[in-house]
Amino acid sequence: MLLNRFVLAIKNQSKETLRAWSYQCESIFAQRSRRIQQLLSFYQSVYGTQGLKQLWRAYYRRELQPPLRGMVLSAVGLMGLNIKRLGSDGYDWNKERLALSNFDLCRRDIEFINTLPHNQLCERCQAKKMKYCYCQLGNQRCRRTQTKAVPSTSKDADESIRNCHQPLDLDLRGAPAGTVRIQAQDEHTWEPYFSKNEFSIWRREERSSLYSYKVYARFDDITADDFLHVQTDLDYRRQWDDTALRLELISEDPVPASNSHLIYWEMQWPRLFANRDYVYCRRYVKDENKKLIFICNRAARHDSYPSLHGKVRVTDYWSLMVIKPFRSFHEPGLHFVLTYYDDPGIPIPQNIKSWVTQKQMPEFLTKMYVATKNYACSRAIKMKDMFNGFTLVNDEYTANAQRGSWLGSLSRRKVTSSSETDR
Predict the structure, then answer these.
(1) Quick one: which of 83, 136, 177, 395 has the fewest CB in 10 Å?
(2) Among 321, 272, 314, which Cα is nearest to 292's?
């Protein structure tokens, strides 16, 4: 009889303990879930969807231990069984992905940035009143064989000639190599074009009366991370670029670490001219070790976006950009060199081309700079608002005042039962 009472008391006490324990776990789970939701909302509002993906990839590479990483890879692999080789939109990324070797074309741009303190103007750049000279470095010929090369004026230039065909040896972290390459006219020489405000621009003839342009600028008060975000965030570009009438993401490379996207872009041209539209592939690389960012664009095709009546489809277009921060990606200060070429598709008088280049290009780059400043300001305001919106969590993780601490309730029961026994 006494044993039965003892067992019954344990059961009753166990039920109360289990109920209090379940309440406690529920409150902890609710608080942690709410905190995770706040953090996800915070990072998405600050860095955007693309930034949140990059943050997760960096956390996955650095923090996840091998057993957990294996489980994540297994889950991704099971999900990947349902993914076809071709994307759901029919774009074959295995054949159309931009090659990483395209970024090797930026080697001289990097050397140009590194040698800016010793930059000297050539005669043509002096005549054009340029701030810097790219001709002496950019017009050197690469050593394709062991024969004697073109004489150089400095040791640095001689090194650039000898090593200009070697890859940059970037820290790619398993990124796919890609196959599509940019066909630039390396045999022609760069010439100074004009210098305006903080921009220095040179040009090189790619075809008859068609030029590629190289732009250099430095900004002291914006970060490389913010500048990259402005370059790659399509939603934000629709807000600050009034010439982008349509800007749509067609497809995204499903391979991790590729950072490749297929984009449709309709650009507004001045009156009396038809608008230009593009279907192009974009790829970017961020090297944490060398502190460099590369962005590559090249014209592409997609069956769902054919040429439209009333618009001129640009099918010959490419661009390369290298961004080098002064110190780190998140600190203010950067250099960038942009090289781009496009064939407008129809003959345009040279004076109109010159007007578009000399007026529209600096205006667009200035708008891009202002957009980066505005983005950094809005991001700081969002960070302040989000941190102010965080609520402190009670250390006991109580769901509400009625439940209280289950340890406290148990201790109060013991005190009450002992006092009744004493009576």
Answers:
(1) 395
(2) 321
